[in-house]
Every structure is written in structure tokens, then in C-alpha cells.
Amino acid sequence: MQGLKRKLVYVTFYELIGLCMSTLGLAYLSDTEASHTGPLAVMITTIAMLWNLIYNTLFEYWESRQAKRGRSVARRVVHAIGFQLTLVVYLIPLIAWWLDMTLLEALLVDMAFIVLVPCYTFAYNWAFDRIFGLPTSALATA
């Protein structure tokens, strides 16, 4: 599976799993009900989904221009950390506003996700590539 279809399948399953994790995680970390954090998790998931499509397109563009092909552990780590760090820029203000807390408090709540999401992203990408194969950008050229 390649192209837009691959990206849509990837991001749909990635974000559905992420939505479940973030609803329950935010409720636990903010000591509020899941009914209050559920809509926030939907907003986070929507932002993350859009950013995921953009980020992966940019990453695959960069990847396709590298002399060495494939997805090494180092490349997967860079991908996962890069995605999470850039996403935090969008999410911290939203979390602070929704949960009525300071940016610092929102950062502290989000710290668990800052650590968890790159691990989840790494594992998800590895499993996705094992199931669906590598994208064209990571395949060796003939």
C-alpha cells in the first residue's frame, strides 16, 4: 500500500488508538471526568491527525532524498521525537485553555504524553511497516 491511501489508513488507526489513550490519560492526569476530557481529546486528535498528515508528507519528502534508504532505529526515533515535539507547540495552549490551567500546568499534564507518544509512535510505525510494508520513500532504489 502506497501514497495517499497508505497515509489515510496510517493516520486513521494511529489517531483512533491515540484518542482512547488521551481521553483516559487526560482524565486521570487532570483529575476530571472522561466526559470533560473526551471533547478535548477529540480536538487534540483532530489537530494531531492534520499535523500527522503534513509531518509525514514532509518527512517522506526528506527521506526520499537521502542516500541511505530504509528505516533504521535512529531514523524512527528522529521521526517519533520530531513529530511529538512539533505537536506540543499546538497542544499546550489548547490543554491550558480547556482545563483552565496555566501553560506550565498544561505542560506538566502533557509531560506524560510527551514521553508516551514518541514510544507509541515508534511502536506503531514499526508495526504498521511490518504489516503494510515500507513506503516508496524508504525502499531501496533499483
Helix/strand layout:
Layout: H1 3-30, H2 34-64, H3 73-98, H4 103-132
Helix pairs in contact: 1-2, 1-4, 2-3, 3-4
Characterise the protein shown here.
The chain is mostly helical and 142 residues long. The protein contains 4 helices and no strands.
What is this structure, in a nutshell?
By secondary structure, the protein is mainly α. 81% of the residues lie in helices and 0% in strands. It has one domain.
Structural class: mainly alpha
Biggest β-sheet strands, sense, barrel: none
Proportion in β-strands: under 5%
SSE order in H/E notation?
HHHH
In angstroms, what separates the terminal alpha carbons?
A: 19 Å
Primary descriptors:
142 residues; mainly alpha; 4 helices; 81% helix; elongated
